[in-house]
C-alpha cells in the first residue's frame, strides 16, 4: 500500500472537510477549510474565513461563526457570518442570525432575530 505524499503543516488547505451522515461530533470545530455537514454537530463551529454547508439530512446544534453558510438541513443556535447566509427551501433554522447578506427561500423555516451586518 502506498501512502499519499505528506504535506507540510504550513501548506495552505486544498479542499473541503466532510462530516458523514453516520458521524456525530460534540465539541469545537475550527479550521482553514470549508466544511460540509451531512451528519450531526453539537457545540461550536469557528471557521471565520471559510464556508459551511449544512446538507438536507444534517443537524447542527452550535454557535456558528463562518464567512458564508448555506442551510439545507437544520441549524439550532446563533449564526454569525461575515458574508452571506442562505436558508434554502428545505432548511430550518432556530436562533439569531447576523450576516452582511441574508437570503431565506420560500418554504424555509426561520425563528429568531435577524441582524444585517455591514459588508466587509
Account of the protein in words:
With 120 residues, the protein is mainly β. The protein has one domain (19-116). Helices cover 0% and strands 60% of the residues. It contains no helices and 11 strands. Strands 1, 2, 3, 4, 5, 6, 7, 8, 9, 10 and 11 form an 11-stranded parallel β-sheet that branches.
Secondary-structure blueprint:
Layout: E1 16-19, E2 24-30, E3 34-37, E4 40-54, E5 59-71, E6 74-76, E7 79-87, E8 92-94, E9 97-104, E10 109-111, E11 114-116
Parallel strand pairs: 1-3, 2-4, 3-4, 4-5, 5-6, 5-7, 6-8, 7-9, 8-10, 9-11
For the residues shown, what is the average pLDDT? 91
For the largest beta-sheet, the strand count, sense and barrel status come to: 11 strands, parallel
Number of strands: 11
SS summary, helix count: 0
Give the helix/strand class: mainly beta
Shape: globular
How many domains?
A: 1
Q: pLDDT below 50 for ≥5 consecutive residues: which ranges?
A: 1-12
Can you give keywords for this protein?
single chain, 120 residues, mainly beta, eleven-stranded parallel sheet, disordered N terminus
Q: In a nutshell, what does this entry contain?
A:
With 120 residues, the chain is mainly beta.
Amino acid at each position: 500500500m502506498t501512502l499519499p505524499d505528506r504535506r507540510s503543516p504550513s501548506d495552505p488547505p486544498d479542499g473541503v472537510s466532510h462530516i458523514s451522515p453516520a458521524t456525530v461530533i460534540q465539541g469545537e470545530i475550527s479550521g482553514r477549510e470549508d466544511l460540509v455537514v451531512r451528519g450531526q454537530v453539537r457545540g461550536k463551529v469557528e471557521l471565520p474565513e471559510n464556508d459551511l454547508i449544512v446538507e438536507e439530512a444534517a443537524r447542527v446544534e452550535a454557535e456558528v461563526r463562518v464567512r458564508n453558510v448555506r442551510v439545507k438541513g437544520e441549524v439550532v443556535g446563533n449564526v454569525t457570518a461575515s458574508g452571506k447566509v442562505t436558508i434554502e427551501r428545505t432548511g430550518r433554522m432556530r436562533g439569531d442570525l447576523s450576516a452582511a447578506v441574508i437570503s431565506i427561500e420560500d418554504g424555509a423555516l426561520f425563528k429568531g432575530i435577524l441582524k444585517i451586518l455591514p459588508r466587509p
